[in-house]
Specification:
The structure is a homotetramer. By secondary structure, chain A is mainly α. In chain A, helix 4 runs parallel beside helix 7. The structure holds a DNA duplex (31 and 31 nucleotides).
DNA sequence: GACTAACCGAGACGGTACGTCCCGTCTTAAG
DNA sequence: CTTAAGACGGGACGTACCGTCTCGGTTAGTC
């Protein structure tokens, strides 16, 4: 990623924050207009009033560029800690889903997932920036549940994260069924993560 | 899809079966050499010794072409029916996973999943040909389990299919953890689909 | 050179004569507007309504392209044969000079000469197409003069061609003195190629 | 030109002579390696360990830079004055030719001639620095010949300079025939500048 | 001894053009 | 009517340099 805040000082003209922002703004606008597959570096440069080289100087390719945009516009993930695991899970995972469904970010996220398939370098970055952090919060919620006795202490949290996020991604990608609160309840119920009703 | 068996008879030179095969062979070879993103219709035509037009006449684009190749080389899915749901599930789902992991077909499948994200027409085809059929077999196994009393009759089979295939796809896509028999047992166990050990 | 008349027949779509002409027209227009150094293949393609690849398919670079344009617009060189060497020389060489001075072709010719300096492949083509032919005609005139006894039979015609064209090119390139009929007379006089006046 | 000797004194850091030399050295090295057309200011700056701005501060462009390099490495022109015009001419013009043929300076000189075609400002500089001075010496030799009666007093010296240098440049540029002492004799002979043999 | 001005290296910047790849369409002759 | 061949208009790629700019840092003369 090209985090302008971390720009190392040294000789030479310093990196322009305005330019950086103009590029990401252009990415957002073009993404909204024509979607990830029709986004071209060329168009971003033109739209931002920037030389192509300036983009290539800081980002290896369009996937990285879009990911940085995505990180910028993604709402801060909540880190609920109410003392009730079921409630925390619902709050957090609902926010996760809404991060995809609200603002048409879903197709962008899946496009990046697609890109990650064919580019190992980007794949790792993608995992670190967009997957791992969320999994971490999820596992913290589950761990607190274990401490409190709400969840069997022997259950593998990494596995659980897969079992939770897996179906969510599956629906995001295939779009064959809704990705909503009802689905979330069904999912958590099937995994015995919420108290049985009745 | 361009099902050669459906070629309608009539006046004029008939469609060449050899050409059809040569094209799919070329797809396979190029896929192996440089992967889906670097596959171009141009290269397929050259490799197959075929005019580009001939490809465009029968396939809308490279995704469709690759999907047909994939369907051709994918092993026939087993339809186990041993009278034991847990065993059938393991047999079938293991075959599902191996269809991805053996023969380097995983990246091709995920690339198509990627393509499906941005092309609704292809997405539907992809779902019908590569997702739906497998889900159907899975649901049959589960349904038989319900009939036999191995599975609670009230459980939603479509939901269960999501909960099973979701995590599998998730690991296929992210590659952060193995996609093997052990994972399958964990998955089925967490969903109460196999008898508790002990 | 990319002589469309010599296009060899065979399978595949034949070369478009219209496109060929449109490209050369665009070259002429752009040359007139902004000169050789500011001429870009990109601009030619845009102006001609043609893909860049179409240009690169037929010409190795802009020098070749411009040379073909030049050959197209250059007036047919006269081949005077009046029986009088001095008169023939004057007629022919004046036409040679006017081919440079009329129609602003001078800068184009010198630019090609410049290009020929750094590109051996083009240099040879340039010599063959724009230099050699004219030298040939000149030497024929001189040879006829020798036959008739107007010129010493022992004089080296190739050397004479250098001594005639050399100063003409020199003035064309340096522009420090006029390139006109008076100069021509001085030149021929100094070389004893015209009868001494008085 | 950027004559370091003329640096005017005053406040501020004075111009660095080392930097100046490093730049011209880099020009020479790069010229030898890849020729004039492939020489870039960027490369000169990098090679010389110098900022691009420093180059642009002192030279308008690469042609000027290269011309200064050329003037630096060109041997001082001889100013022969033996009392014999033919001998003086041969000495001087041979040195002129060798200045081109020795040390691979020919392509550089012709490249500058090329550059002069399209850039009037540089053209004037080029004429003053690389053409005029040599013509001046040549005309002096001829003038002394006239004084001594070796050359007809009525002959136009400027014209004669064109008739001498013209063919020499012509061969330098076209490379179709050798540029050597034999040619020089032929040239001077044809212009009646050396005594007829026999 | 501080101040000021010009120099210098480094390198980011907006921009133009390059030559290539591939797209999907088209136009031929051959079968 | 299909096929192989391949030209076509077009869009984008990633790179090379252009000439300008903006930093921190240097190196003199002047106050």
């Amino acid at each position: 990623m090209a985090d302008i805040a971390e720009a190392k000082t040294g000789p030479g003209r310093p990196r322009s924050a305005e330019t950086h922002r103009a590029i990401l703004d252009a990415v957002g606008a073009l993404l909204a207009e024509s979607g990830y597959p029709n986004l071209s570096i060329e168009a971003v440069a033109t739209r931002a009033g920037v030389g192509k080289q300036t983009i290539y100087r800081w980002w290896p390719g369009k996937a990285d560029l879009v990911m940085e945009y995505l990180l910028g516009v993604s709402a801060q993930m909540p880190r609920p800690d109410t003392g009730n695991m079921a409630e925390d899970l619902r709050t957090f995972l609902l926010a996760s889903m809404e991060g995809w469904t609200i603002g048409k970010l879903g197709p962008v996220v899946t496009a990046l997932m697609a890109e990650a398939q064919s580019d190992a370098r980007f794949g790792e970055l993608f995992f670190r920036n967009l997957i791992s952090a969320r999994r971490g919060i999820l596992k913290e919620i589950l761990a607190r549940g274990q401490t409190r006795g709400e969840l069997d202490a022997h259950r593998d949290l990494d596995l659980l994260a897969d079992l939770i996020y897996g179906p969510m991604w599956y629906r995001l990608l295939l779009k064959h069924a809704p990705l909503d609160a009802g689905f979330l309840d069904d999912l958590l119920g099937a995994l015995n993560l919420v108290p049985r009703r009745g």
